[in-house]
Fold this protein.
Amino acid sequence: MDGVQDKAFSLAKAGGPPPGQIVLVLQGGGALGSYQAGVYQAFHEAAVEPAWIIGTSIGAINASLIAGNTRELRLDRLREFWKRVEQNPLLRFHEALEAFNERLSAWSAVANGISGFFAPNPFAHLSDSLPLGADHAGYYSTAPLQATLEELVDFGLLNHGKPRLSVGAAHVQTSKMRYFDTRHCALSVKHVMASGALPPAFPAVRIDGELYWDGGVLSNTPTEAVFDDNPRRDSLIFSVHLWNPLGAEPITMADVFNRQKDIQYSSRIATQIARQDQIHRLRHVIKELAARLPEAERSDPMVRELTSYGCQTRMHIVRLQAPQLDRETHTKDIDFTAAGIAARWEAGYRHTKDVLARAPWVGEFDPLAGVILHE
C-alpha cells in the first residue's frame, strides 16, 4: 500500500512520499454526501489509498462503502448506493422549472421517504406523546438503509483494518461523542446506522444496550479524532466539508433557513483548527526546549515527565469544500435528484483532482507549526 501511495503522490507533484498517514474525514450532510463520492473517485483514479477514514452520518455511510469493499469494487458500490437513493418523482416539469422539480423532489422525500434509505413511520404522526419506544421514536424508519448496507458492505472485510475506519455517534443519555473504531472493536451495520440516526427524523440505534444518535448532533466534522489519536502520527488529512462556513447575509426566510443549517453543521471547524494549531505549536516548543537542556537535567524524572508533552508530529489539513449549487435552499440535504447528486459528485471529483495535482503540502513550512491548513 505504501508503494502505491508514493507513486500516486510523485505523479501529482515531485517531492517524495506524502507527509504521514493519509486520512479521509467525511462530514455529515445527507444528499450533499455525493460530493464525497466524487472525492473518492479522484483518489481511486490517482491510486491514493487512505490509511484511515473517519465519517459521521452520510460520511459514515460513504466511509463504510469504501472500507467494506475491495478496491476493485468500491466505486461500483458507491455508484450503486447513490443510484438507489436517487429520487425520481412521478411528475416532472420542463427544465426551465428545474427549481420547482427540486422542490417537488424534496416534498416527495418528506412524504414518501427515499427508497433504500428511509420510509415514513406513520405512528410518529399520530401524537407527539405516543409512546413509540426509544428504538422507534422517529418520523422515519431506517430499516431500508440497514438492508441496503448489509447488501453493499462486507463487514468482515471492513473490520480487517485496512483502511482503519471510525464512525462518530452521540450517546443519547450522556451527550458525549463516541468514535467507534475498527482498531478497538468490530463494527456492524448498527454502528454505521447509529452515526446517521439524526433526530427527530430517524430513531436512535442501540449498541451494547446504549442508545446513540447521529454524531453530527455534537460534532459534524470529526477531524478531532485525528488530533486526539494516541499515539499521534504525522498525517495528511483530507477534510471534506459539505456545509459552507461562509455565506452572505440572509434577506429572506428561505435564506435564514439555509444559512442556519450551514452554520449549525459546519461545526466550528475553523475554531477547532486554530486551537489545535496552538496546542501543536506548544508541543513543538516543548520539544525544542527539551533538546537544549543539559543531559543531567533531561534525565531527572520530573523533567522527563514534563518534556513528554512535547512532540514533533505535523498535521497537514487539506480542506475540500462542496460548492453551493444554483437555486440551493435549506432542503439541499434531501436533494436526492439525479441532477443534484451528479452535480455534487462531479464537483468533488474536480476539486480533488485539482488539489492532488497542486500538492500544497509539499514545500517549506514554519518548523514550529504542528497544524498547517490548506484551503
